[in-house]
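Supplementary material to the annual report.
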Amino acid sequence: MSRIEQLFDKSKQASKKVLNVYCTAGYPELNSTLDVMEALESNGADLIELGMPYSDPLADGEVIQQSGAVALDNGMTISVLFDQLKDFRQKISVPVVLMGYMNPVLQYGFENFCKKAAEVGIDGLILPDLPPMEFEQEYSLILKKYTLDFIFLVTPETAPDRIEQLDRLSSGFLYAVSSSSTTGHDKDFSEVEKYLSRLQGYQLQNPVLVGFGIKDKASFDRTTKYTDGAIIGSAYIKALGGQKGKTAITTATQSFLDTVL
Amino acid sequence: MQQKIQIDKNGYYGQFGGAYIPEMLYPNVAQLQKEYLSIMEDPSFKKEFDFLLKDYVGRPSPLYLAERLSAQIGTEIYLKREDLNHTGAHKINNAIGQVLLAQRLGKKRIIAETGAGQHGVATATVCALKGLECIVYMGEVDIERQAPNVARMKMLGAKVIPAKSGSKTLKDATNEAIRDWINNPTDTHYVIGSVVGPHPYPDMVARFQSIISEEIRWQLKEKTGHELPTHVIACVGGGSNAAGTFYHFLNESTVELIAVEAAGLGIHSGHSAATTTLGTPGVLHGSKSIVMQTPDGQVVEPHSISAGLDYPGIGPLHAHLFASGRGRFLSATDDQALKAAFNLTRLEGIIPALESAHALSGLEQVDFPKGSRVVICLSGRGDKDMDTYMKHMADFE
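Predicted assembly:
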């Protein structure tokens, strides 16, 4: 059983909702990646979505764009990231999925990237600009070969048959974008609830995590009534803003997660 | 025999194209994929499009035999005068097409990106004509260097939003427009100005611009008795005027297709936009194409004196023309383009846009066999570039 499956199994048994927190590799400092991840794990994150910075992140709002720009200025690259992650499984046990955009992964070499990710102990991959057709034709077998989960996004505008298709192609979990938007926007949560409860009505094979606009305990509790958990990104990046050094990062992470859990 | 150049059902030209978009954009892009051809082929659409191209834009644009330029180069040179279109460039052909299409899709709000401002002006113009809300994203750097076009867009009633991320030019304006579309999925149509973006944009924009080569064929026949030129030349940033100029010659193997990219301060100067020389296969703005990028896959900031060519990618059609060898790709530096602009102005009394000046510069780089019939797309007029031209005036006196 994969790390992600184990997590959702355990959470279900304990009737607990999964908290997935997004952080940007190489942010706030080039070498803070592991400090941030450790702080997240020790303060209650059940899953970590580790963002690989990209020059043109189309799906991201300003906060995550900024963190990516800082990380790139700091010198973050995929090679540097894999170096940083070489022994991370000695310190971190929660599942970790890498999130990024197609272009840097293609330049690294898709198979080479998957091989390396699996070697260091990464559990899955989110590439929002990889469409299902190309995924099926070119990439799904590579992910299987390295036993990496691949997570697709669905939105309130995704048609039922396409939700079923994206769920079938996904493994690990399905990422429900709370409304059609870039990351970090405030939401009308009554609309989000309607959508999530509709989603609950489908016979999905994967657990569902909701993301985009989740920022505190109120929005976490409200949305996870209908899902297996939620993803927080921009709000945490904002809380991390400008912190330097392990102690400051840990303190900022702790006080942020205290407002969520 | 050479492979036929055409888009396949999944939106690919050879290995380039596709729709690499986040799921948030899928419903809009899928709707376009499903409906663009049937809308474009609908008689009422055709009627309105043709009417506007004729009476509003002033088409057909003349095909002009430039006699003094021809004498200088030593072969027959015809200029396809897209600069004489309403709003001053070829961009209006596509803007009209897409806005009419957006209306038929029930969209009320139009967004666009712009580099030199020509596409922004064209879109703002058609939105004024149709009474639609218009928002144009433009890089902060470009807003400064293309001030006259910013003023025009504002007078036309468009809202111009500066793109402040990255290099603050066309690439970043495109990112911002795409993000706007993600955040406004139901009421908005995104009028992309070039043959870039997810399928069906590259094909849709090429079709709207194909009027350029459609006219060239019958105009040339009228003038010379020959329907086919020996060479067609156009500048390429994203590549919309080149796509329109090449379109009806793509599968005419005797016609040499020549694209001229912007080499900025020199191809290998680190300040260039010569994508096919400097780029590698990658994904940018929703399609797989050739992209200028670092070995780590970060898109690099290009440079060209011409805001319309200052783009680190190229449409997937052009990537395919390059990779398959069907197209010949040249480049012109900022200085070469300036020289060509002053040369045309003094020989023919036509001030070209800086973008088109790159295409003109290509003339000096090709050995034309005797009897060649060369058509160059003069994609736009130089009014918007007068500040830049005045700065360099002394070099050409």
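The radius of gyration of chain A is 17 Å.
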